[in-house]
Amino acid sequence: MDTELKNELSRQGIFTTTLEEVYNWGRRSSVWPLTFGLACCAIEMIATSMARYDLARFGAEVFRPSPRQADLMIVAGTVTKKMAPQVVRLYNQMPEPKYVIAMGACAISGGPFKQGYNVLKGIDRYIPVDVHIPGCPPRPEALIDAFITLQKKIDAQSLTGSNRPRYLDADAPSEFIVPEYGAHDLEPPKNVKLWNIIYKTAPNGSGTTSENEPGKD
Amino acid sequence: MNSIFADIYRPIGILVVAAMVFALSPLAMAWLWSRKFSLRKPGPVKNSTYECGLESKEDIFLRFRPEYYLYAIVFLIFDVEAIFLLPFAVAFAGLSVGASIAMLIFLLLLVEGLVWTWRKGILVWV
């Protein structure tokens, strides 16, 4: 529906909507995160879900203990190379549409442990991240801000057309390479094709995905 | 006679039908929506057994001994007993003789149950 026409109608007191908007409203109002914490950021994530910061206001209080029921993975904390295959496998086991928030300096880049031999330098080497939040750890407000950003992203997604999200594209894969724990490093050390896959079909100008190619030391 | 019953039960019948429609229509709509819009993208990892992100090593169809349920029931009974004992302990000093005897009977009954299960051999793990 034309935006101008819609605005004009709403000025005249006529409320119009589309199936797409109702669908996106439903999706963004019930984003269920996976019960999944890796390090200290998880404590902040738990605080966010509790009464003081109350993530339930945004419809996301139902942390699901199984990836089969979850929509959102909050990668909260340091991803060690030992843990990375499990994180990617959990992501692969989530049904689509699925979203990822990389929470904290470690999850987005390795953070203070970036020079460490055993820490993955950003989870976006293996799975597509929708929102990155810096901080060590980020405060609950930052996580809520990331959550609202994600809701805006969901709201902007269209059901049809060439810029529809990846999960509505039959050719786009829903699974990504699960790295193996090799002799010296993870194999492969990063999924080089990942961001090509995402940018082939990602909506243009959504403003929430990272524009930088990840994993450059 | 028949018509009176029909009059009485008609609202209930309507309510039952309305409740069914209310409960089933979201499911039907979700099913139709998934048929139209959501693509099925199965894959080897997605279809594999969920085991906290680890690869499943053993057969998922483990066998549990059915005797375990008796153990669980006995545990439940004594769990409830502990809940009753807490307020009893708090109010113990102010209780009358009759109330104390009643509690004692309750405890003795459970002790008898414990002795019975012990003699039955339920507490022995085989």
Task: Provide structural commentary.
The complex is a heterodimer of chains A (217) and B (126). Chain A contains seven helices and five strands; from the N terminus they run αααβαβαβαββα. Chain A has helices at residues 3-11, 19-28, 41-49, 84-93, 104-109, 140-156, 194-201; strands at residues 72-76, 99-103, 131-133, 180-181, 186-187. Chain B is an all-alpha fold and 126 residues long. Chain B is flat and about 70 Å long. The mean pLDDT of chain B is 87. The chains are: A mainly alpha (217), B mainly alpha (126).
- Uncertain stretches of 5 or more adjacent residues of chain B: none
Helix content of chain B: 55-70%
Q: Quaternary arrangement of the chains shown?
A: heterodimer
Radius of gyration of chain A: 18 Å
Broad shape of chain A: globular
Largest sheet of chain A: 3 strands, parallel
| Strand composition percent of chain A | 5-15%
Count of alpha and pi helical runs of chain A: 7
- Shape descriptor of chain B reads flat
Number of strands of chain A: 5
Got a strand count of chain B?
0
- Order of neighbouring strands in the sheet with most strands of chain A: 1-2-3
Radius of gyration of chain B from CA coordinates:
28 Å
Separation of termini of chain B? Answer: 63 Å
Q: What is the helix/strand order of chain A?
A: HHHEHEHEHEEH
Low-pLDDT ranges of chain A: 201-217
What is the typical, i.e. mean, pLDDT of chain A?
A: 85
